[in-house]
Amino acid sequence: MRRLFGFLRTSSVLAALLAVPGAMMCGPAAQAASPLEMNFWLSGPRYDGNVPPCEAALDKISTRFAEKESRFWNSPLQITSFTAVREVAFRPWPTDTIPRRWCTASATLNDGRTRQVHYSLIEDGGFAAYGSGVDFCVVGLDRDWAYSPRCNAAKP
Fold first, then answer.
1. Fewer CB within 10 Å of terminal CB in the chain, N or C?
2. Contacts of 101 (CB under 8 A, 6+ apart)
3. pLDDT computed for residue 68 by the predictor
């Protein structure tokens, strides 16, 4: 009995594998793009490297950090101030990638502790590609491990 069912399984898998190319051959033929399709908003990325300085993202980082801590972790932690803000790298990858400015700073939290913050500003990385976007990680408070270990994935 096992041989019979083993044969049926093998034959049904074989039939399915043969049916896929057959179905592809019966479909409509692919056509080249029309001139309108080839030239309509397909100009490619035009990055100028206009990324704001490191200090421009500090307000956004402190606001987003406080929102994330209160909404998702039920924590009252907030960033009260930043010191030692410095650029780590600018466009460290090949020239055809999206321009980023990588920065680091020391953040003082409302619990009195000082923690390192690693962040990047991304050209056209804001909502709907408008304005610069910001990715950040506070060392020791990456609770969902998005940039683990110790925020190393938030560095260039």
1. N
2. 51, 52, 53, 54, 87, 89, 90, 120, 121
3. 94
Q: Report yes or no on 147 lying in a domain.
A: yes
Residue-wise pLDDT for 52-98, tens only, equals 999 999 999 999 999 999 999 999 999 999 999 999 999 888 777 88
Domain membership flag for residue 31: no
Q: Is 114 exposed, middle or buried (0-12, 13-18, 19+ CB in 10 A)?
A: exposed
Residues 6+ apart with CB under 8 A from 59: none
Q: Tell me the two tokens of residue 98.
A: 């999206």
Number of domains observed in the structure of the chain: 1
> Who's near 88: CB < 8 A, 6+ residues apart?
102, 103, 104, 118, 155, 156
* 60 contacts 131 by C-beta, under 8 angstroms: no
Structure-derived torsion over alpha carbons of residues 103, 109, 112, 115, reported in degrees to the nearest 10: -30
Coil, strand or helix at 103: strand
Within a domain: 26: no
